[in-house]
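Archive record:
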Amino acid sequence: MKKILLPVSLVLAALHSGAQKTVFSVGTVTSMTVKASTLFSADSLVLTPGTDLLMSNNILTETATPVQIASNGTIKRVFYFSNQLTYTGLLQIYYDPATELNGNTEAGLVYFDSSSGGTWTKSMTSTVNTATHYVQQTLSAHPFLSASATSTIVTLPLSLVSFTGAWQGNSVPLQWAVDQENEGVNFTVYSSTDASNWQPIATVPGVPGNGLYTYDYTDFQPAGSPIYYRIALNEASGAVIYSNIVIVHRPGAGDPNLRLVADDHSVHVWFDNEQPAAIRIVSAAGQLIHVDPASRVRYDVYGLMSGVYFLQYNVENVWNTREFLVP
């Protein structure tokens, strides 16, 4: 990936005050497009969009004033867009651990953001890099207005205990267990064919009460194989908690065109017939790990940690997915 400067539409502004500055501004006449898979750095906010990102009539400001989400509040790096941005791709927030943690524990930092008219929401899938000091989050058609990070533990009135699913016949039954405290809640079931682009397929109302409750939903029309599911726990307060991702395969499904070998923190992929236009590697948490926009017969990706990953490959403008395990 490479950095690009967009002088036609990017207007850098001076520091407004000691606590707040304008990072960039685009108007209604000029606009800014960041091409897919291109790294774009706006001060300490770094975006690598999965699709072309068009921004117009928007101002990005940065402040060192923390947001008091809970006891510690956020780090002293908070970003605000003047108009809500809908974003697909990788987002990173860099910070100075010596001066900007604001009492937070660096190893426990998680991504938080808020949308228009909404509350600040904690991510369940972000990661933190304590070597080069940034918080990272992968988003899919995600609307947000502001973004930051905190390690503060926000006490939630419900907790997801488990979420499972399996292919049975032509349908996929899903089941999840929640430990709750008399909280009004409902659940949104999402499915995806590529672990990146999510579609809501059902809303399941919760039962008010204390203790462990089990809920279920059956997808009678799965969109493909493999297919991915996740649950959004929607609290009465407006907070949203996302579950882990469950991957389900139709028995016997596969791609005879593809050969894959994963070993020693790496994966090696061959395409015997039609070559893909591009590939992506996504972690089990939904984070974009690697993008290769080139078309070739063989791909080699190194430096992967042990765990479950998803190889996504584009053939004839269709993204297909293959799960693999790095030992």
The domain at 158-248 is CATH 2.60.40.10 (Immunoglobulin-like).
